[in-house]
Amino acid sequence: MKAIGIIPARYSSTRFEGKVLAKILGKPMLQHVWERARQARFLEDLIIACDDERVQEAAISFGAKCVLTSRGHASGTDRIIEVVNPIDVDIVINIQGDEPLVHSTMIDNVVTALADNKSISMATIIKKIENPLEAEDPNVVKVVKDKNNFALYFSRSRIPHLAENSEAPSVIYYKHIGLYGYTKDFLFTYKNLASSHLEEVECLEQLRVLEDGYRIKVIETKYETVGVDTPEDLEKVTTYLEKEQ
């Protein structure tokens, strides 16, 4: 089964313009993402999908395959669809361009989940929350899952809520890491789903999938990541990578 990875890389960002080209230890953030994604064993191709010539030039300079897409796309998913539409592929992995700590096993695990079970059309990554403050942070998306590891709900609020009269000794919180895998067929189904009420309430695009009755497989990882939305996040990533060296 052929699987490819797409890294959507938009130059304009409301909170941090040009962040995909921001330098981390001398390299653009996008290069860190690409280099880590290249280590995945089950991707047959890896493509950067960008909307700006500056991003394209940077990608080509460090050896990446890059496609310049329309600037008018509303989301990274739409950008991915433009790229994969003419490609003969079964599985598409959406690798966020602002996740410089993404680990190759996350990608391989998502590919495997989709390849091994034909009933699964979409999968993503979650991680147990270690820092209690993350459970309270609305910028950290939480997820609850069923016993078969399918998502029940995603929220910016702390879920599940530990009631005062609960007999549970403790509660485990999981955060969502925005790496997605889809079958190509479902990617186009996803594109045609109408924006949902819960999606608009939480500002979480994946909720339209659940609200429309489809399932999302969730796969737990042990690896920590830091999504970069602000210059402060960039400093956190830099500190993390310095410790790795």
Question: What would the keywords be for this entry?
Answer:
alpha/beta; single chain; 11 strands; nine-stranded mixed beta sheet; 245 residues; Spore Coat Polysaccharide Biosynthesis Protein SpsA, Chain A
Description:
There is one protein chain. This protein is an alpha/beta fold. The chain has a single domain, classed as Spore Coat Polysaccharide Biosynthesis Protein SpsA, Chain A. 32% of the residues lie in helices and 22% in strands. It contains nine helices and eleven strands. Strands 1, 4, 5, 6, 7, 8, 9, 10 and 11 form a nine-stranded mixed β-sheet that branches. The longest helix is centred in the last third of the chain and has 14 residues, at 231-244. The protein starts with a strand and ends with a helix.
Short characterization:
Helix content is 32%, strand content 22%. The protein has helices at residues 29-37, 53-61, 76-84, 104-116, 132-136, 184-191, 197-202, 207-211, 231-244; strands at residues 3-9, 23-24, 27-28, 45-50, 65-68, 91-94, 122-128, 142-145, 151-155, 174-183, 217-220.
Indicate the topology.
Elements: E1 3-9, E2 23-24, E3 27-28, H1 29-37, E4 45-50, H2 53-61, E5 65-68, H3 76-84, E6 91-94, H4 104-116, E7 122-128, H5 132-136, E8 142-145, E9 151-155, E10 174-183, H6 184-191, H7 197-202, H8 207-211, E11 217-220, H9 231-244
Helix pairs in contact: 3-6
